Amino acid sequence: MSRADTFGVILAGGLSRRMGGGDKPLSMLGGRPMLAHVIERLAPQCAGLAINANGDPARFEGFGLPVWPDSVGGRPGPLAGILAAMESSPLPWIVTVTGDAPFLPPDLVARLHAARARLAFASSAGRGHPPIGLWPRALAPALREAVLGGERRVGEWALAQGAASVEWDAGPRDPFFNANTPEELAEAARLLLS
């Protein structure tokens, strides 16, 4: 079910060192870019979508989504992407997901909203996935200050803001499986068929 108050942003700005460089979300999975799987799962849950990525936005033009670059320099990581989402979103709530998580659950946004006090992030198998989270746009000034002050850890910052951790069942396929290496991409292809 779509939330009219929530904008979805796919964090696709990583350097993909473990994948050999390039844009990991553009890696092929089941005959389509991994990013297409992420979009397909997130789009029905949000009022709109955008991609957070730096560099030439033309590489994502085939997806028909706006591309929002980091609003601070130096590529400080996913917190900068979350900040760009907060500062660019036209809606009061933002859900961020990673561009390498092709099995997102269909109840992601609804469950994060249901569990939040101030904000919330996903967990599975007892492990948190803070970049997959729900953020109020109103926290943008505090996040900007934290990023400019050197904060790089999404989980620590989120917990300091009162984030709830929302647990999903990890079997038979972890909904937050992310493909960081060629081996994990091959495992994702196997899981896609299961």
Structure description:
- The mean pLDDT is 93.
- The protein is built from 6 helices and 9 strands, in the order βββαββαβαββααβα.
- It has a 7-stranded mixed beta sheet, with helices on both faces.
- Helix 2 (78-88) packs antiparallel against helix 4 (140-148).
- The chain has one domain: Spore Coat Polysaccharide Biosynthesis Protein SpsA, Chain A (Alpha-Beta Complex), CATH 3.90.550.10.
- The protein is an alpha/beta fold and 194 residues long.
- It has helices spanning 34-42, 78-88, 108-115, 140-148, 154-160, 182-192, and strands at residues 3-11, 28-29, 32-33, 46-52, 67-68, 93-98, 119-124, 127-136, 163-168.
- A hairpin with a 2-residue loop joins strand 2 and strand 3 (32-33).
- The two termini are 25 Å apart.
Main traits of this protein?
194 residues, alpha/beta, Spore Coat Polysaccharide Biosynthesis Protein SpsA, Chain A
Could you report the average pLDDT, rounded to the nearest whole number?
A: 93
Q: What is the CATH architecture annotation? A: Alpha-Beta Complex
Q: Which residues sit in consecutive blocks of at least 5 with pLDDT less than 50?
A: none
Radius of gyration: 15 Å
Strand content: 25-35%
Strand arrangement across the biggest beta sheet = 5-4-1-6-8-7-9
Assign a percent range to the helix content: 25-40%
